[in-house]
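User: Here's a chain of 156 residues. Predict its fold as tokens.
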Amino acid sequence: MTSNLVITIIMAIVALYGAALSTYNAIQQRKEKKPSIKVSQGIGMITDAMGGLSDAMIVLTAANTGHIPVTLASAGLFLPNSQQMIFPPLALNVRFPYELVPGKSCRIYREATSIVKSIKEQQYNGKIDVVVFFQDEVGNTYKSKKTKLDLDGWKA
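Assistant: Prediction complete.
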């Protein structure tokens, strides 16, 4: 009777292991079919052919960390009080719609002073929380982490 009990326990363990492995595989397959875009922001400058530097730029980056292409339709900033600043498509170095294939990224550069000026025109001042976003053509929104933007630290 003890050998039957041992066999039953071993079979139960094998069955649990199989169920766990099957669940894990199903979750992984589901993840591979979903878009995954990592969004970030930073400050930088652009160099020209002569080695000159641009004014400070806000850099918005979208990286496709998933397994399927995603067609981006717009980009911008979420401001406090649920306001959005959407960057016009003609003013960008990336043209929307933009197909972002797996393993690639795109960067949008905008002059920091012009962005700060536009935000101040909306009656914001001091340090505010902003979130960079990209939106795809089917309505999914991909966001960065919240960042403090010191509006008083920029001439605008």
